[in-house]
Known about the structure:
This protein is 42% helix and 12% strand. It is of the alpha/beta class. The strands form 2 sheets. A 6-stranded parallel beta sheet has the order 5-4-1-6-7-8, with helices on both faces.
Amino acid sequence: MLPIPKAVLFDLDGTLADTAPDLAYALNRTLAHYGEPQLPFEQIRPVVSHGGIALIKLGFRMQPEQEGFEERRQHLLQVYLDNLCRDTRLFEGMAEVLEHCERNAIAWGVVTNKPAWLTDPLMAQMQLSGRTPAIVSGDTCANRKPHPEPIEHACRLLRVPPQHCWYVGDAGRDMQAGRAAGCATIGATFGYIYPDDPIEHWDSDINIDHPLQLIELLAAAATND
């Protein structure tokens, strides 16, 4: 049984919000711009949590050191910036999770490897910016996940010790960062599961396959507190 938390922190892409449709749109627009065939959504979805580099590698079968790679990545990021909330939504049930936390005086925040110039406008467009003081991006701190520093920083912003915090994410690096910070870790198996990062290797404290299970876990923790 997990201890009742004073705060819950979320990864952004593939955990809090379903951003894959807009990232897939950006990749396919970029592929079309360079005369390459577009890819099916099902092929793109598992890769999106790993950012622009992974998407360009997937779409163009290129490596970062190759000529033209960075040009394509920058084009992808610009298309994405222009379409941040075209189809992005909170995962089904996640709005209820945030409301449950707020009703029960459980602080919440976001810790993502997405750069702030994408994170901040996305959170604003989803009308979430004013609801938490803890939005930590990949370039907020000197280190990014799997280093624990971003989670530790978010905990300081919320004034909650990491041992009283849950961290929810959809990748092994999320679980690694959460453990290193001292948080309880929850694997979101409804997220973007990268083939090279299988769930059985995450070593999370517990896994969930739907956001509403977080409310059940919070209620059970409160009952056993």
